[in-house]
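Feature request disguised as a bug: please show the residue count (200) next to Pyridoxine/pyridoxamine 5'-phosphate oxidase in the output. Example input:
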Amino acid sequence: MSTQPLIDLTANPFALFTAWMSDAEASEPNDPNAMAVATSTPDGRPSVRMLLLKGADERGFVFYTNVDSRKGGDLLANPHVALLFHWKSLRRQIRIEGPVTQVSDEEADAYFASRSPMSRLGAIASDQSRPLDDRSTFEERLKAAEEKYGDGPIPRPNNWTGFRVAPDAIEFWQDRPFRLHDRALWTRDGSGWNVTRLYP
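Example output, currently without the count:
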């Protein structure tokens, strides 16, 4: 059997998430904060893609996007998501479900300013998820943005912001031999949490 201890059901789920993320930062070759983000339209058509987690605390889990993108449209029309972190090097995963709200303008501005200048210019030049007639069109728009802003400040576009997932369910999973995996589910109960271990 695995020497990994069983998941501690007395743990605070945010503290456990932080501990597992710290382990992933030490063991994953790149992007330990990568996660699958699943959204759906109001009529239930799902869509999923990989994004990077950019903030996590007891208020929730934050990522950023262009609100005119497909996921942005989904989030505005149906503000509920599922997140999945999978760390192959650790043989662990975390599933998170909950409603989303937009972060404050101040938070979005601060994170946007922390990005590299080229990433900020790319956000301005890109009509994310929209059809692109030719790659050169995007490159021309990027060059035009470079010329416009030069070495000066690069403002955050109005259609680019962050979303915070306030979890109402967090499931921790870790591999054990013979598919006898260890799973534990925390579900929101008012201001507290209920927790139970799940069958593999």
